[in-house]
Design a protein that fits this description.
Strands 1-2-3-4-5 form a five-stranded mixed β-sheet, with helices on both faces. With 236 residues, the protein is an alpha/beta fold. The protein has two domains: 178 residues, no CATH class; 43 residues, no CATH class. Helix 1 runs antiparallel to helix 4. Helices cover 27% and strands 21% of the residues. A hairpin with a 2-residue loop joins strand 2 and strand 3. It is built from six helices and seven strands; from the N terminus they run αααβαββαββββα.
């Protein structure tokens, strides 16, 4: 049953499912167990979404979408039997997740900010549409399925993509016809390992390998790995 305490309970329920070892490991190693975001980052998100963050935040990385739905459902409908219907098949048992979540309660509303990140790979509309479909069912096409719950969606990458198709995205995922974007700082000089033949041509069955410049991270200016121009070294 819905009640005025449900938005506050959402944070508690979301926190109870946050069981990624990586979250605890990174937080412990960096001395930031709550994954408290920097003020610089907070101000960027506040400006983009026209929000003001309170001090108390729930944050998580690689947060399963199953957990997201379960947390919302239990905040409003938790009962005594501890068994709940899956008529809408929103619990899938898959590993599909949200890269980073920030949630907080303010003025009796619970804001849930979902951030999808690409650092060195390009955005794939197929993957985005899969998540948009599930999130549209979980929050509703207008984001109004759960009383006092306000969902937001952000894309984060070194460069703003021009090829993102938002046609199938629920309304709340977009602002002014596009998904809100925040810049991610990524070094320019990043490389990947590519299997190749003895002429340096990419070949998944090749008996050789070569370092290859990542074109879609940082900026597009080619840098030399370890002082070697990888474009020239494999040219015969």
């Amino acid at each position: 049953m819905f009640d005025t305490e449900s938005p506050k309970q959402v944070l508690e329920k979301l926190r109870s499912f946050n069981s990624k070892e990586r979250f605890f490991m990174v937080g412990y190693i960096l001395g930031n167990p709550d994954f408290k975001p920097s003020q610089t980052f907070v101000e960027k998100i506040e400006n983009i979404l026209n929000l003001k963050f309170p001090k108390e935040l729930f944050t998580a990385m690689d947060y399963h979408i199953d957990w997201l739905y379960a947390g919302l459902y239990l905040a409003f409908y938790e009962g005594q039997k501890n068994i709940y219907p899956n008529d809408e098949e929103l619990i899938t048992g898959s590993q599909e997740d949200i890269d980073f979540i920030i949630a907080f309660v303010q003025n009796n509303y619970c804001h849930i900010i979902l951030i999808e990140v690409k650092g060195v790979m390009e955005w794939a509309n197929k993957q985005l549409h899969s998540k948009a479909l599930r999130l549209g069912k979980i929050f509703g096409q207008k984001g109004d399925r759960w009383p006092s719950i306000v969902p937001h969606f952000l894309m984060m990458s070194p460069k703003k993509s021009k090829n993102v198709d938002v046609f199938d995205c629920p309304r709340w995922m977009t602002l002014k016809g596009e998904i809100p974007w925040v810049e991610l700082s990524v070094p320019n000089e990043l490389y990947k390992v590519t299997r190749c033949d003895d002429n340096g041509h990419a070949n998944k069955d090749g008996a050789f390998w070569r370092p290859e410049f990542r074109k879609n991270c940082g900026n597009s200016h080619r840098q030399a790995a370890c002082g070697i121009d990888t474009q020239l070294i494999f040219t015969r």
